[in-house]
Design a protein that fits this description.
It is built from 9 helices and 12 strands. The chain is of the alpha/beta class and 230 residues long. Strand 11 and strand 12 form a beta hairpin. Helix 2 packs parallel to helix 3 and helix 6 packs across helix 7. The longest helix is centred in the middle third of the chain and has 22 residues. The chain is elongated, with a radius of gyration of 24 Å.
Length: 230
């Protein structure tokens, strides 16, 4: 259940948005304080912020900037009486995902929340890279990052190359000769046997399931033992 933080100094507006969001199965946090909003963002309890820029304690743009600096960035929909074109441009330039001017329809705001969260889910899926073993192992080629469960693995370039090669064709057996050529880019018989040492180190970093993830096929070579999800 996504959590929406409503940062709005008008209590009536906060209450109306809470009711509409909860009817649509969102978890809702509300506050009139920009400082409290910053605290909630810092502890990672928020999936999206509905933000009034005119807050009593700090400028709402400070909250917007903080939301964009979290990892991953928290999407923000600005709710503001500032309706001029320069105001809207400023909000979007600072990183707002949407900009709604007051007065507004609460039902429309809920729809916009759903749309922004859906866009974020699609981007996350596209950028996350393929996963294996029911989501336990994820390999992101674009960022050269391997994540096992919740841990990002610290792999050497050779270990990364080995795993990425095996993951490119799950279940296929690669000979040591093939792995040398694909990982190192040249033929070298002396290096061929050293693949075993790199596999051993890679398995160690993969933990208890290392020998299952990188499987030995006796007399032939290695293969990825986990199937690709989807």
């Amino acid at each position: 259940m996504p959590t929406v933080l409503v940062v709005e100094d008008d209590r009536d507006i906060r209450d109306v948005l809470r009711r509409y969001l909860e009817r649509s199965d969102f978890s809702v946090l509300t506050t009139a304080s920009g400082v409290e909003a910053l605290r909630l963002l810092a502890v990672g309890q928020v999936d999206l912020v509905l933000l009034d820029l005119g807050l009593p304690d700090i400028d709402g743009t400070d909250v917007l900037i903080a939301a964009r600096q979290t990892d991953p960035p928290v999407p923000v929909i600005v709710l503001s009486a500032r309706s001029t074109v320069p105001d809207r441009i400023q909000g979007l330039t600072l990183g707002a995902d949407d900009y709604v001017t007051k007065p507004f329809s609460p039902a429309e705001v809920v729809l916009r929340v759903s749309t922004v969260l859906s866009r974020g889910a699609v981007r996350a899926k596209e950028g996350a890279g393929p996963s294996f073993g029911c989501g336990r192992l994820r390999i992101d080629v674009s960022s050269h990052q391997v994540r096992l469960d919740t841990t990002v693995l610290d792999l050497t370039p050779t270990e990364w190359g080995l795993l990425a090669t095996l993951a490119g064709a799950p279940g296929r057996v690669f000979s040591r000769y093939e792995l040398v050529n694909r990982v190192r880019g040249y033929e070298f018989s002396g290096y061929e046997r050293s693949i075993d040492s790199h596999v051993k180190n890679l398995r160690h970093k993969l933990g208890p399931d290392g020998s299952v993830i990188v499987t030995t096929v006796i007399g032939v070579g290695y293969r990825l033992g986990w199937t690709r999800d989807g």
